[in-house]
Amino acid sequence: MNISAVAVKIVKLILFAWLLFVVSTARIAARNNLQWSQHFEVTTKPVDSITLVIAHPDDEVMFFSPTLLQLDDLLPQSVRFNLVCLSRGDADSMGSIRELELQKSARLLMGRSGRDFEVFQHDFPDGFDETWDVRSVASSIEDSVFIGDDAVRTVLVTFDEHGVSGHPNHVACHDAVKHIVKQRSDVRALFLKSHHGNILLKYCGFAYDLLKLYFETFLERPDSGLSFVNTFPQYLLAFASMANAHKSQLVWYRYGWWYLSRFVFVNDLEVFVQ
């Protein structure tokens, strides 16, 4: 076997895939609109705000940029965006730096549209060994979102019951949001599917969804679940936000994440209502 020839073919295939991703921008945007109208918009009441609940600074861009950027495009400007970060990411004693990085990242991600948004920073202890009390977390989220107005109709966006890589801080976000939704009739949630146990899907980049995009079009079989896909310009915006804002976290292996992780390209979401 000629290893050089095989390597050249692989490089050509990768370049072709990226080129196809770039030229599919309009098709991806149309699919995002269709997904929203089919799976969420027509079945729910109007919303006053979208609230992303994360465990650590950089979660917003490492995991949720497809959802944030699509909702920013799809929702009216009157809908306010909130970002609730429950820890300062202080496991390595860099909490004060990471808190400022989160503020900058949010401005880069959300500032392009002129939409009102606010970042709420809390100080739960960061770490795999830290257990957060669900009711305390839920109370902190409610204090941030409702601010004395219990009539606010909001959609809470956070992790599913497994979190990404099973991180207990992610799981606590899910449990707290689920608790809130069960208590409030005007609150709904979108849970980011972690695809727990499916390593291939987690680390296939955009490949699976690009194939699915054209497969669905050819057979006219739209996918049954709600998912948002970053277009190439949106992917570049998300990566630029990470590179320019979260500099303390941009160690060498993060570049691999931005190339291989499906979360930076695609978010599959579960709609949860009481």
TrEMBL record:
It holds the Pfam family PIG-L. GO terms for biological process: GPI anchor biosynthetic process. One of its GO terms (molecular function) is N-acetylglucosaminylphosphatidylinositol deacetylase activity. InterPro entries: GlcNAc_PI_deacetylase-related (IPR003737), LmbE-like_dom_sf (IPR024078). It is an enzyme of class 3 (hydrolase). Its EC number is 3.5.1.89. Gene3D superfamilies: LmbE-like. GO terms for cellular component: endoplasmic reticulum; membrane. Belongs to the PIGL family. This is N-acetylglucosaminylphosphatidylinositol deacetylase. It comes from Torulaspora globosa.
